[in-house]
Amino acid sequence: MKTNYFIILITLSFLASCQGTHKKDEMMIELKKIPQTNYTKIACPFEIDMDTITIDKINVELPIKNIGKKDLTNLYIKTTCDCTALEDYPKTLKPNEQTKVKISIDIDEKGYFSKTVVVSGSFNPLVRAVRIMGYKK
Q1: CB–CB of 137/110 below 8 Å?
Q2: How far is CA 8 from CA 5, 19, 20, 81, in A?
Q3: What sign has the CA pseudo-torsion 61, 83, 26, 32?
Q4: Which of 61, 55, 110, 117 is nearest to 84 (CA)?
Q5: From CA 26, how far away is CA 61, in angstroms rounded?
Q6: With CB atoms counted within 10 Å of each terminal CB, which end of the chain scores lower, N or C?
Q7: Are residue 61 and residue 81 in the same domain, yes or no?
């Protein structure tokens, strides 16, 4: 009986993970349709260190700047955790235009934490992972 529950649990988690993968695949297919001659460059940190915190919810601003000569289009920002929320952000940035994406993160457990936000768009190499980390006292 325990084996049946285990098999059902594994099957459900596999199906749930496939749905998220399908959306990610669609996004990458759309991004790969953009000719490389239309790619631009961005300035965006790879890590944001929050140092030591004592609160349960943190607010972070993720700066993204188009430092290339072409428009940054198809800007997608995704979280990898239900504890992380994004405010609305522009989907296009002109050359030298900058935005600061507001991110809220719930930190329930004490100790070290690390959350990832994925930025993608018409820049090379199409995807950048940004790690937000720190320590909760």
Answers
A1: yes
A2: 5, 17, 19, 23
A3: positive
A4: 117
A5: 27
A6: N
A7: yes
Task: Tell me which DSSP letter residue 26 carries.
Answer: H
The 3-state DSSP class for residue 60 equals: strand
Residues 38 and 65 sit within 8 Å (Cβ to Cβ)? no
State whether 5 and 50 are in the same domain: no
Give yes or no for a contact between 63 and 48, defined as CB atoms under 8 angstroms apart. Answer: no
Domain that holds residue 49: 37-136
Task: Give whole-number Cα distances, 136 to 16, 46, 58, 61, in Å.
Answer: 30, 21, 10, 19
Q: Examine the domain organization and report whether 23 and 77 are in the same domain.
A: no
Q: Report the number of distinct structural domains present in the chain.
A: 2
pLDDT at 106 over 90: yes
pTM confidence score:
0.80
Dist. CA 32–CA 2, nearest whole Å: 44
Residues 17 and 32: their CA atoms lie apart, in Å, by 22
The pLDDT mean for the chain works out to 86
Tens of pLDDT, residue by residue over 116-136, are 999 999 999 999 999 999 999
Q: Are residues 47 and 26 in the same domain?
A: no
